[in-house]
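task queued by scheduler; priority normal; single chain, no ligands, no partner chains; default sampling; output format set to structure tokens
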Amino acid sequence: MNNSSDTSTLNSELSGRDFYANLYSDSLEYEAEWLRRRAVQTADSICTLIHRQGLNPSNILEVGCGTGAVLYELQKRGIAKSYYAIDYSSDAISYVNHNLPDVHAIVGDIKDCPQLFQGKKFDLVICAHVLEHLEVPQLFLKSIGLLNWQTFIAEVPLENLFFGKIKERFQDRTKHPAGHVQFFNNNQFLDLIAGNELNIINQNIYAPILTMDTLKFRYGNSSRFKYIYKIFTENYFPRFLGSFWTKYYHAHMAVICDRKKLNQ
């Protein structure tokens, strides 16, 4: 783990968890639409890893599901037969229960999954864009080891790349607009996962790209400078700079894991 300590906070007082609690409370519908628009590429990445390994999960649990956008995308594709979800936000889970009635969603701390799902076995557990919001992600990953599952997928943004480190000198990361308190590069993410009794069997790195319609939805009311900046950094550059962009500026990285063997 790099420059974010285990007690990192946002805006001097808010933890990553408190950040989203306030966000869901104040603007649930807007946030749900934003997450829905972003979930397509996350679901694409999950499906890529599943298909590479030739998996056909019967059930899926998403931890830190938010408003269920990723599970909605996986349901549309018929990836599994049954879906489970957990999030600490009662507002988010109420949204899931209302809009995704086929998902078994509960309110709870994701670190309590072994107790909350005691006796349940999952073919696939998903943790998509959660670890960067946790002050101590190691605690969550250790708890995952106590849950009964066959395959585990985690995805995070890579924000501690070359240009990200340069930006850090001019921006206060405690005021991160998406509520992140952890900032990863490739090796830091892999070390975090491998250091918690998880065996990485495949990985996927891609450049997240926002459509022009989504950019307008998200940044249309921002200053003209910010809007244009986002058009270039969230659409043009990721599409045309390819591997240079994902290596030096910004990417999303997902890993698929099984349990580490005792003799490894």
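post-processing summary
- Residues 48 and 204 are 8 Å apart (CA to CA).
- The first strand starts at residue 59 and ends at 63.
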